[in-house]
Every structure is written in C-alpha cells, then in structure tokens.
Amino acid sequence: MSQSLAAAGPVAELALAGDLTRPARLTVPDLLAWPQREAEVSFDCATSGIQHHRFTGPLLHDVLTAAVPGFDPARRKDRLRFLIAVSGSDGHHALLSWAEIDPDFGRAPVLLAVTIDETPLDRAGPQLVLPQDRCGARHISGINAIRVDGGYTPWA
Ligand SMILES: Nc1nc2c(c(=O)[nH]1)N[C@H]1C(S)=C(S)[C@@H](COP(=O)(O)O)O[C@H]1N2
Ligand SMILES: [Mo]
Q1: Strand pairing partners for 129?
Q2: Ligand 1 neighbourhood includes 138 CB (under 6 angstroms)
Q3: Burial of residue 92, with CB atoms counted within 10 A of its CB: 0-12 exposed, 13-18 middle, 19 or more buried
Q4: Any idea what DSSP says for residue 79?
Q5: What residue owns the CA closest to ligand 1's atom 6?
Q6: How many angstroms separate the CA atoms of 141 and 143, rounded?
Q7: Could you give the C-alpha distances from 2 to 5, 31, 125, 135, in angstroms and in order?
Q8: The pTM is what?
Q9: What 3-state DSSP class applies to 86?
C-alpha cells in the first residue's frame, strides 16, 4: 500500500445483503469488474442549488444481478415485490423498487459510481447516480450497504 493510501485510512467496503444467493462485500476497485457507464448529471438541492457532476461506474442492476436475487428470473411478475434499500455510512438512505431499474420495466440507468468529476471514490465509497432525478437527494454518497428485500407484502 502506498504512503498516501495508508495515511488516508482503509478503503471503504459496500455490503450487498438480503434476499441474495451470493451476498458480497465489495470495494470500489471491485466495482470496476463490470462494464463502466458514464453519466453527466445536473440536480437541484434544496439547500445548495443546482449541482453538475460527471460520474462513471457500473449499472446498479448489473451488480445486483451478479449477487443473484431470490426471484425466478424467468417470471417477470416475480420481480415486482422486490425492494432495494441503499444506505450511506451517515445513515442517509432511500428505497428503490427492483422494477425501477429492471430493463423490462422502468429501465432507469442507475449507476453505482466509482468516480465523481474524474476523482476515484475508493476511500469515500460508491455513490448512487439517478440521471432521471431532478432532485439530488437520492444521489447517496459513501454507500456502505445495499439490502435487497423480496418479502414486502402490502397487508402484513
Ligand atoms: N450519504 C449522503 N448522501 C447524500 C446526502 C446525505 O445527506 N448523505 N444528501 C443528498 C442531497 S440532499 C443532495 S442534494 C446531494 C448533494 O450533492 P452535492 O454534495 O454534490 O451538492 O447529495 C445527496 N447524497
Ligand atoms: Mo439536497
């Protein structure tokens, strides 16, 4: 490990957990194993106004599919009960539906960014990027956990 990496502390880890056949702990460098996308986004923040950033990283859908969610991939309807909870290390979190990012349904090109404005996020942890969002609030930075949950039942 280089002097600068050691001085800046450990590399952040992201836990993929929940209804997954292959749960995993991934670092930002691990996320380079998937095809990389890029997104130029502008979003509005209630407190700091309009922000512009360029992000790169894999699709959230690709990373979660590799962890093998517990639905029947051949039955599209079986995916509709799945939720994705994304949490930052400061406790900021948001829920997405699986269908929102599924290529057969909402097709949102949501990224797990590994760089912001050409700067690697190795120590900060990955950032959620939702190019379709007008508001910045779901662009969760420093992601340390993503939980996939297929157990949602409306009347329970
Ligand atoms: N971990 C974490 N991510 C977060 C937040 C937060 O409080 N914690 N705030 C969100 C909000 S409200 C906005 S507008 C953007 C701010 O992005 P910026 O820092 O580039 O302005 O980050 C989002 N991501
Ligand atoms: Mo914000």
Answers
A1: 111
A2: no
A3: middle
A4: G
A5: 92
A6: 6
A7: 5, 21, 19, 38
A8: 0.94
A9: strand
User: What are the extents of the domains in the chain?
Assistant: 11-149
What H or E segment, with its residue span, contains residue 62?
A: helix 60-66
Domain at 11-149: CATH code? 3.90.420.10
Instruction: Out of 48, 92, 130, give the residue to mutate to test ligand 1, the one with the largest number of ligand atoms within 8 Å of its CB.
Output: 92
69 neighbors 19 (Cβ within 8 angstroms): yes
User: Which token pair is 70?
Assistant: 């517990």
Q: Looking at the DSSP assignment, which residues form a beta bridge with residue 14?
A: 26
Q: For the chain, first and last CA: distance in Å?
A: 50
Task: Walk along the chain (156 residues) and give the pLDDT tens digit of each residue.
Answer: 444 554 556 889 999 999 999 999 999 999 999 999 999 999 999 999 999 999 999 999 999 999 999 999 899 999 999 999 999 999 999 999 999 999 999 999 999 999 999 999 999 999 999 999 999 999 999 999 999 999 888 887
